[in-house]
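Margin note: ligand = adenosine-5'-diphosphate.
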Amino acid sequence: MEKPILIREDGLRHDGRKPNELRPIKMDVGVLKNADGSAYVEYGGTKVIAAVYGPREVYPRHLALPDRALIRCRYHMAPFSTSDRKSPAPSRREIELSKVIREALESLVFSELYPRTTIDVFIEVLQADGGTRTTGLTAASLALADAGIPMRDLVAGVAVGKVDGVLVLDIDEVEDEYGEADMPIGYAAGIDEIVLLQLNGVLTVEEFREALNLAKWGAEQIYKTMKETLHKKYLKALEE
Ligand code: ADP
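Resulting structure:
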């Protein structure tokens, strides 16, 4: 396909968003009955569900850690999540994303409270339209909170991209494919810590600084929505 126009003459993006505008975001927690914690998150056309089990006994047992919980994470794209058929076998990309998301979560969970147990995090991408790792990280963080697992903070994921020379917030698949750079981050706004940062493509030092500020600003909006979503759940539980 020929490269589409990513920044229109009026300065707006191919889908009509302003450069610093997020896609419409939806989220909910407690969406799966069998999991200890769960969450559903949408960033525009990207739809992800996360389930958390644990802390629970580790199988196989030899994997248990004496001083903390073992955190495992599986990021997976459902075979029906893209228009081209995706192989159901775990790809190199899925293995990498499972690792970076796990590391981001490990830095926030108080795993030392639950030695010899495991906390399993499953992220299932139902529909992919760019930013599945960042949407997945947000969903995983909400699912951990929903499971009542103590954490230093929540984390919100969002990616900034450079398209037609302009830095834009929360890129979708078209912007990811045809843009010049893509920088996903995970930001724990309450403690002001970046727990995930990747960069694909090239940015100048000045652009990097600007991109990081834009990403943190976007992540803060998402973080607020995450808190509201969790609040709503507890208010609902009080009414019942
Ligand atoms: P992220 O989803 O975190 O942005 P990538 O930059 O690797 O991760 O992927 C960008 C987008 O490309 C995905 O969100 C998805 O829409 C699409 N994509 C990724 N892998 C596949 C695949 N195997 N088949 C079809 N589309 C894919």
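Residues 82, 84, 86, 93, 128-133, 173, 176, 182, 184 surround adenosine-5'-diphosphate (CB under 6 Å).
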